[in-house]
Specification:
With about 150 residues, this protein is an alpha+beta fold. It folds into two domains: about 100 residues, no CATH class; about 40 residues, no CATH class. The protein has four helices and six strands; from the N terminus they run βαββαβββαα. Strands 1-3-5-4 form a four-stranded antiparallel β-sheet, with helices on one face. A two-stranded antiparallel sheet has the order 2-6. β4 and β5 form a beta hairpin. The termini are far apart.
């Protein structure tokens, strides 16, 4: 018998609890691909069971889950996350145009930078400055190429 993948939206209380987990929120919604809005996105999180831990990153598994969520809930983009041995699909909705084509990116929070600081031995401000300078360099390079 094949393993069944079960995908269920979390209740509001469950979603709030998951969003409070520091490792879950390292990747956050940052930009609407349709209108460019960049703040105050609502979130919908799905709990996923029936996927072995070593299969959670498989493109085929993620495509099946994404397709199901898209067809069932009309959500364009989902981002897969694992925390506390649980597997989730995270999505966002733009408050301005209601699009679900939301780009997620790493949030440069103090907690995130503190973890990197401990790993590298560099001060937080030096890391922040270095990351911002790198982004600025790549952004200006992209603009010049266009």
């Amino acid at each position: 018998m094949k393993n069944l993948i079960k995908i269920e939206p979390l209740s509001d209380d469950e979603a709030i609890a998951v969003l409070k987990l520091p490792k879950f929120n390292g990747l956050k919604p940052v930009n609407c691909d349709d209108c460019g809005h960049s703040a105050d996105f609502s979130r919908k999180i799905f709990g996923i069971s029936g996927v072995k831990k070593n299969k959670r990153c498989d493109d085929e598994i993620q495509d099946i889950i994404s397709s199901y969520i898209s067809k069932t809930y009309g959500i364009a983009y989902v981002f897969f996350k694992s925390t506390n041995d649980k597997f989730y699909a995270d999505s966002a909705c733009c408050p301005k145009c209601q699009s679900t084509k939301i780009t997620f990116d790493i949030a440069l929070t103090d907690d995130f930078l503190s973890d990197i600081s401990k790993l590298t031995g560099k001060p937080i401000e030096e890391l922040r400055h270095g990351i911002e300078a790198t982004v600025k360099h790549f952004t200006s390079t992209k603009i010049r190429k266009n």
